[in-house]
Design a protein that fits this description.
- The structure is a single chain.
- With 120 residues, the chain is of the alpha+beta class.
- It is 16% helix and 32% strand.
- It has a seven-stranded mixed beta sheet.
- The radius of gyration is 15 Å and the shape is globular.
- It starts with 16 loop residues before the first helix and ends with a helix.
């Protein structure tokens, strides 16, 4: 790559999925809530619907996964991570699952998740 070439995995408004995975998520109080495990993209629209927050466990094993509607995340350059305007107890009581026990991401689950975060 020449010195004048622009990186293809990140621009001022776009970022490659592999750079999002592993990014830390904080709440407004600065508490580290976990990291982005992956995100779920709507096959038809191409829109990101959820970022799956991985929390707890050791080395990514045995933790819980919390689907966060993409709209509740804001990237904060000063923290180098995503920030949610939610208290930790809101996350702790949110719909979640263990790795290997992924829920069916259907309309009922979508309503449950979005309802928990007050988005419906």
């Amino acid at each position: 790559m020449a010195d004048t070439d622009v990186a293809v995995d990140e621009t001022d408004r776009l970022i490659a999925s592999d750079k999002v995975e592993g990014t830390v998520v904080y709440n407004r109080q600065g508490e580290r809530l976990g990291t982005i495990r992956n995100f779920m993209v709507d096959k038809r629209s191409g829109n990101v619907e959820y970022a799956v927050l991985s929390s707890g466990g050791l080395f990514g094993m045995g933790g819980e996964n919390y689907p966060l509607p993409w709209k509740v995340l804001t990237y904060d350059t000063s923290q180098g991570g995503y920030v949610v305007d939610l208290d930790k107890d809101v996350i702790d009581t949110a719909p979640h699952y263990r790795a290997g026990e992924e829920p069916r991401y259907d309309r009922d689950f979508d309503r449950e998740v979005r309802g928990h975060y007050g988005l419906i």
